[in-house]
């Protein structure tokens, strides 16, 4: 049966029906006889259709592939999962999490059958009774009489979903006999090849449910916050909503979307105000009408479920939607497909997957991967919330300005080196630039490496003396040896300056004295300082993470492996070389675990869609970076910072003991505090994206009592660090 011949036949039938409509309508017996002949003709046609695949070709003339379901060609979402099993991210072209038939709740299946195809388990892919009824009524509808009647079975709907790419006529909802015949033929072949359970499974996995969700599993998560794979039970009203969304995800959406109220200026004239209000009321009434229309559809599904014995009268009555009352929004628990607070961690996960050889297509199209990570959802929520609150406070003085102070926070579990939280800015949906990985000056937060080197390699101790003495040295020398620029470093200006002269290492580090630190670095050699930093995993290469043995453990797509890294010049001892917050925070965890280095990690395990393990992270390996003695001494020094040093004001009321070092770069352009508890290492950095002096006199007045006091890491980053630790340990016992 050729396509052109079929079209000619359909056209002839339509014209004949139009001529004979009034004759048939006035004679009931003739109407019944016509219906009988229609059924007879249809049954004759089915005999041919059932056994033949002739003419079932795609738009290029190739035979349709009826083994398509077996090839699992549907797009699949790859899921990023937190350490406690929560879905915290998705990589997808179409968000979908295919389920097996046995994973789908039986009552949900009954709901779809009641709404769409009551004889699903008994017909051969098409419903002869429904088609016979629709064949006549739709023919008359086409010539302007009566109402349209549907007859598509679930199998026919699946045929459209499966072969929309191959058959252009399946891409729209145009009601033509030509399309319906082809749709029926495909459905019959699918029914012959696959069991009903497979057809239902494939159908529910392919439906578009609106708001970017494809498949029943993702729809349950999005609308109701339920994971049916983990046996979260759906309510009967929820089933009615889901079964209705298949008919039209926009018309029958349960989400009430009122139009935004008009924002009117006081100087607008009365006519404009009335026009805007009238337009608002019109749009609001339209949305109210839509939601009431949706409720009628939900109730229709409930009526069908009651009629077919799927629910009891009592359940039906309790589940009915009240059309004249506001929609019961408590039914919904909208769970966005993307949660910005996990965005930066997910971005790092994706880049590490690229490092392992995965491609974008594997992640977003057909991978269906389950990527288990070390992200702790509760700690991440604390970090994101506290960072955003603090940025809002310090940016009050920047209202109206394009540039805002931004920030980053990293939290690492000391025992394993696993990243449990990462925030690279206030809003990932606004910018995916990850400030936790960008290179910036660490300021005085780098100084602990200088003191660790002095203790480790030169036998220095708390009471060892170092000169807090000014000096000048060449900064730039011409090709003939002439000094063209001199460098005269200075100490940070504060109320109670440390006097010049010899001071102890304890005083030098806790008070963050620049001149003493530089003189110490001159004494032990800057190369020793850099060696110590390297051993602790700090290299300062753009977009590259290196471990204590110079092995790359992370490389972003925009990495520059040839970037200079830590510079072998004296200013590096006090933060003159740029490093990332991630590598700096991980280096402090070396002190916390008594001198053992562990490279950071975030991916624990990767499984494919069939639960086959593709990757499992190796057990963390410790490498000696410092002696236990040096590490313990550094912890004593860094804890003293919170009692008598630069962190005392911000952290004096903190119950959980911490060891920290504050950092303030030149300008100051960057404000930091890096520290650790026995369990976690935490790094905080604040600053403009384009280096710029931070000036927040009103904030400084509030926290210090002086508008003129110089901005520092202790005053500005310290309170954020304190709030994060307090929230993390609010329900945890204090750990010494």
From TrEMBL:
InterPro entries: Beta-lactam/transpept-like, Glyco_trans_51, Glycosyltr_51/Transpeptidase, Lysozyme-like_dom_sf, PBP_transglycosylase, PCN-bd_Tpept. It catalyses: [GlcNAc-(1->4)-Mur2Ac(oyl-L-Ala-gamma-D-Glu-L-Lys-D-Ala-D-Ala)](n)-di-trans,octa-cis-undecaprenyl diphosphate + beta-D-GlcNAc-(1->4)-Mur2Ac(oyl-L-Ala-gamma-D-Glu-L-Lys-D-Ala-D-Ala)-di-trans,octa-cis-undecaprenyl diphosphate = [GlcNAc-(1->4)-Mur2Ac(oyl-L-Ala-gamma-D-Glu-L-Lys-D-Ala-D-Ala)](n+1)-di-trans,octa-cis-undecaprenyl diphosphate + di-trans,octa-cis-undecaprenyl diphosphate + H(+). One of its GO terms (molecular function) is carboxypeptidase activity. Residues 263-290 form a coiled coil. Keywords: Carboxypeptidase, Coiled coil, Glycosyltransferase, Hydrolase, Membrane, Multifunctional enzyme, Protease, Transferase, Transmembrane, Transmembrane helix. Residues 85-257 form the Glycosyl transferase family domain. One of its GO terms (biological process) is proteolysis. SUPFAM superfamilies: beta-lactamase/transpeptidase-like, Lysozyme-like. The chain crosses the membrane at residues 29-51. The keyword Membrane applies. Residues 407-666 form the Penicillin-binding protein transpeptidase domain. Pfam families: Transgly, Transpeptidase. Its EC number is 2.4.99.28. This is peptidoglycan glycosyltransferase.
């Amino acid at each position: 049966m050729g396509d052109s011949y079929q079209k000619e036949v359909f056209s002839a039938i339509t014209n004949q029906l139009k001529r004979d409509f009034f004759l048939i309508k006035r004679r009931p017996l003739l109407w019944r006889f016509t219906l009988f002949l229609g059924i007879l003709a249809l049954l004759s046609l089915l005999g041919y259709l059932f056994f033949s695949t002739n003419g079932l070709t795609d738009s290029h003339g190739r035979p349709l592939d009826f083994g398509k379901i077996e090839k699992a060609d549907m797009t699949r979402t790859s899921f990023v999962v937190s350490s406690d099993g929560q879905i915290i991210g998705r990589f997808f072209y179409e968000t979908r999490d295919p389920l097996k038939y046995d994973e789908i709740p039986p009552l949900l299946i009954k709901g779809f059958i009641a709404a769409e195809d009551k004889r699903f388990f008994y017909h051969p892919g098409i419903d002869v009774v429904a088609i016979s009824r629709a064949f006549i009524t739709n023919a008359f509808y086409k010539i302007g009489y009566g109402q349209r009647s549907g007859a598509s079975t679930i199998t026919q709907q699946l045929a459209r979903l499966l072969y929309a790419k191959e058959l252009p006529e399946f891409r729209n909802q145009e009601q033509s006999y030509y399309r319906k015949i082809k749709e029926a033929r495909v459905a019959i072949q699918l029914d012959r090849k696959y069991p009903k359970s497979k057809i239902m499974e494939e159908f529910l996995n392919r439906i578009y449910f609106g708001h970017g969700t494809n498949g029943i599993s993702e729809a349950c998560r999005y609308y109701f916050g339920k994971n049916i794979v983990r046996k979260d039970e759906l309510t009967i009203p929820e089933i009615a909503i889901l079964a209705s969304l298949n008919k039209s995800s926009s018309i029958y959406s349960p989400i009430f979307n009122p139009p935004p109220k008009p924002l009117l200026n006081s100087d607008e004239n009365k006519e404009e105000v009335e026009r805007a209000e009238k337009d608002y009321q019109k749009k609001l009434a339209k949305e109210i009408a839509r939601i009431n229309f949706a409720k009628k559809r939900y109730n229709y599904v409930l009526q069908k479920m009651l009629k077919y014995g799927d629910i009891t009268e009592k359940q039906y009555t309790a589940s009915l939607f009240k059309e004249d009352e506001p929609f019961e929004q408590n039914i919904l628990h909208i769970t966005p497909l993307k949660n910005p607070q996990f965005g930066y961690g997910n971005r790092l996960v994706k880049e590490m997957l690229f490092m392992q050889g995965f491609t974008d297509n594997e992640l977003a199209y057909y991978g269906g991967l389950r990527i288990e990570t070390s992200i702790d959802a509760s700690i991440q929520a604390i970090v994101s919330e506290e960072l955003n609150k603090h940025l809002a406070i310090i940016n009050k003085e920047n209202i109206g300005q394009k540039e805002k102070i931004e920030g980053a926070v990293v939290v690492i579990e000391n025992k394993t080196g696993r990243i449990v939280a990462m925030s690279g800015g206030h809003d990932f949906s606004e910018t995916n630039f990850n400030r936790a990985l960008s290179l910036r000056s660490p300021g005085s937060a780098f100084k602990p490496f200088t003191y660790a080197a002095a203790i480790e390699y030169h036998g220095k101790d708390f009471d060892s003396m170092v000169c807090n003495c000014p000096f000048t040295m060449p900064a730039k020398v011409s090709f003939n040896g002439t000094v063209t620029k001199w460098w005269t470093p200075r100490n940070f200006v504060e109320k109670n300056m440390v006097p010049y002269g010899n001071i102890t290492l304890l005083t030098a580090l806790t008070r963050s004295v620049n001149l003493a630190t530089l003189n110490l670095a001159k004494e032990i050699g800057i190369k020793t300082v850099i060696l110590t930093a390297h051993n602790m995993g700090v290299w300062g290469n753009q977009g590259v993470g290196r471990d204590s043995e110079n092995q790359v453990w992370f490389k972003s797509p925009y990495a520059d492996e040839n970037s200079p890294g830590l510079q072998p010049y004296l200013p590096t001892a006090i933060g003159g070389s740029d490093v990332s917050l991630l590598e700096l925070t991980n280096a402090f965890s070396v002190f916390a675990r008594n001198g053992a280095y562990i490279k950071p990690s975030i991916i624990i395990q990767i499984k494919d869609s069939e639960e086959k393990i593709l990757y499992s992270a190796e057990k963390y390996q410790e490498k000696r970076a410092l002696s236990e003695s040096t590490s313990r001494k550094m912890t004593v020094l860094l804890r003293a910072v919170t009692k008598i040093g630069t962190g005392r004001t911000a952290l004096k009321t903190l119950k959980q003991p911490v060891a920290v070092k504050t950092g303030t770069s030149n300008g100051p352009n960057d404000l930091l505090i890096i520290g650790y508890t026995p369990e976690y290492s935490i790094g905080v950095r604040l600053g403009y994206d384009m280096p710029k002096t931070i000036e927040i006199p009103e904030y400084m007045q509030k926290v210090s009592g002086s508008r003129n006091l110089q901005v520092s890491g202790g005053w500005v980053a310290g309170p954020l660090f304190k709030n994060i630790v307090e929230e993390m340990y609010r329900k945890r016992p204090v750990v010494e």
